[in-house]
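hey so u asked for the seq, here:
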Amino acid sequence: MCEFQPLLAYMKGSFKSKWKTRENWDLKVEPNYRQRLPNEIVLETDYEKPETNLEVATKTTEILEQKNISYQMWFSGNKSYHINILFDTDLTKNMIEQWVYKTFEKALADCFDDCNWNEKRLVGIEWQPHQKTGKLKSLIKEFDSTTQNVFPKEIKTKEKKYVLKTKDVSFRGKCLICELALVEKFPESSNRHQHIIPNFVAIMPTTCWQQCANTQGKNLVEFENWANIKPFFKCSQLQKYASKNGFIGVCDNCPYKKIRLTQEQWNLKKKMSAGWK
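ran it, structure tokens below
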């Protein structure tokens, strides 16, 4: 892996700083959030009760130890637990998802928050305070954590053999979920900022950002941070989010649903246009 400089941020209450690398960090306070490492998988559940999150995390670590997979388990400082797993290669979200469903039964795999597998995902920095509670992110337990796990070759091979079958067209028109985000606040416990904001920024005009921020109770700087990264629009992610949060049938009325590319297809399209360099 090449040298990697993660994006960092400081968050406290409603304040959220710009995302910057360590060499560009100009705040007087230490950052308390960092970008997911390229070779890292973060497993987390976002249930309302901390006891439920702990129960799932404990079951997860038992399975990891049975399979001789090294990890660290951290208390986030709020209500959730993060299980960090390091591998010997960089990972795409597609590779992480395949590994999770290969390692755990579907019922358990479905519990994990897949937003943590995004390339630009920010997670709490170890031994730094949580933005809401001020409690430190602390180590609960670990298993052979000095050893990097070997990522399964069959998953890497499967990733390389992916074939683009969808018609090569980009999104056009309006996203009904993004339109709804302008007037209705989505559930706070469903990581709406990771599902809604990057997709909203990808296709909605800047003149709408403040209205969405006000409706969702978010800070405009979050929209600006995502804009600097230039995110892709992920139709499938919003469809899944809408279904999980009771917005049944909204996407069914979208005339453009059938022609959108998934994130993996966009990645492949970019590689093809660059000559696989």
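The first helix runs from residue 50 to 66. The radius of gyration is 19 Å.
lmk if thats what u needed
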